Amino acid sequence: MRLIPLLAALVLSAHTATAATQCGGSFNGFVKGLKREAIANGHSKSTVNAFFANVKKDPKTLKADRSQGVFQMPFIDFSRRLISKNRIDVGKSKAKTYSSTFDRIERNYGVSRGVLLAFWAFETDYGAFQGDFNTLNSLVTLSHDCRRPELFRPQVFAALELYENGDFSPTKTTGAWAGEIGMVQMLPKDILENGVDGDGDGKVRLKTSPQDALMSGGNMLKQLGWRAGEPWLQEVSVPKNLDWSKSGLNHSMKASEWARMGVKPRQGKLPNLQASLLLPQGRKGPAFLAYPNFRVYFEWNKSFVYVTTAAYFATRLEGAKSYVAGNPDPAFNGNQMKSLQKKLKAHGHDVGKVDGILGAKTRAAVQKEQIRLGLPADAWPTAQLMNKL
To answer: Locate the Peptidoglycan binding-like domain: which residues (predicted)?
Structure first.
C-alpha cells in the first residue's frame, strides 16, 4: 500500500549521489559491487558471501513499483474502499486486546492508539497479510533499478546488519514489494534504529509480535517528530463564502483564526494550534483542519490521498463521526489528470512527474491557476478550470 517507504525524506544526499552512480548495468555485476562495498565497510567476506548467495532480480517487484494506480483515486472513493465496518470493529477489538501496550506507547512516545491501529489496518489488515515478496530480492532489485536507488541501497546494508544479528534471513524473510517487514511495515534501517522489544522476549519480531510491531511504530513516529498529546486531523464545517485561497497544506493559521472565519468543528473544540484547512475534494466535499502531527504522516507515505485517509481513519477509531461527503465536482480520471498536469507545466508550474495523481505539487499549481483565473481557489481541478486553461 505504501507509495514511498518510511524515512524516504531523510535519506542523505551523499547516499543519493553514490546510489545514482552505482545502479543499473549487469545485475550480477551490481551484486558484486554491493559485496565489495559491504566488505569495505567491515563485514566479513564469509558473511557477505552467505548473505548474497541466493539473491535474484525480481520482476514482480518492478511490476508492483510501476503499478500504483490506486493512488489516482479521489479521497472519498479511496477512503470508502479502505474503511469498512469490519475494519473499524476489528480495530476497536484490537485496542482492547492490546490496551496495556497502547497505554505504554502513549506514555513513552505520545502517539495515540488510533494512529497505530489505522496503520496496522491499512498496511497488513492487522497482521493478516504482510506480503510474500522475498525481502532481500526486492531490496536489491529496487537498488539496481535506477528509478529510486537512493531509497533502497542503504536498506540492503541494513538488512545485512540484521542478518548478522540473527534477525533476518536472506531466503526466508518476506514482506511487501518495497522491502518493508512486519505488521506495520518497517524497512530494515528503520528496524535497526527504532525497533523495540515490546513483549519482553529479548527479540524484536515485527512479523509475529503485535507488541513489538506497535511499540516500534510508536517509537518511529516519535523520532519523526510526533508531538505528544496533540491531535492530527479534525473534521470541520466551512462557510460557503470562505476565502478558499487560504486552504491547503501550503497555508496555515491558528485554529482560533479559522474559527473567526466561520470554520466550526463537527465534534469537540478547536485546539490552540496552527492548522491548515484540508479540502481533499474541494470546497463542496469533506473539510478538515490538519494540525502539525498530520505532516508526520508524510514521512510514512508520500501519497496525499493515503495520508488523509489514514489520518481520518485514526480519528474514526477513536470515536469521530463519518465525514460529510457533500457533493464535490466530479473527479478527473487518470488520463484527464495527466492532461491537466501537462497544461499546468505548459503554464510554468512544477507538478513533478506527469503521473495522473493529484499530489501536493499539482494541487498547489491548480490553486495558483484558480487564483489567476478568478475561480474559487480550493485546489480541486474542474472542467471549468481545464476549459479556461
So the answer is: 333-389
Give pLDDT tens digits for 202-242: 999 999 999 999 999 999 999 999 999 999 999 999 999 99
Domain range holding 355?
Answer: 334-388
Distances (CA, A) of 387 to 339, 347, 357, 362: 12, 14, 20, 17
Residue corresponding to grid cell 485496542: 95
Task: State how beta strands 274-278 and 288-290 pair.
Answer: antiparallel
Please give the grid coordinates belonging to residue 338: 495527466
Q: Is residue 360 part of a domain?
A: yes
Count of domains observed in the chain: 1
Residues 6+ apart with CB under 8 A from 80: none
2: nearest Cα among 135, 221, 184, 224: 184
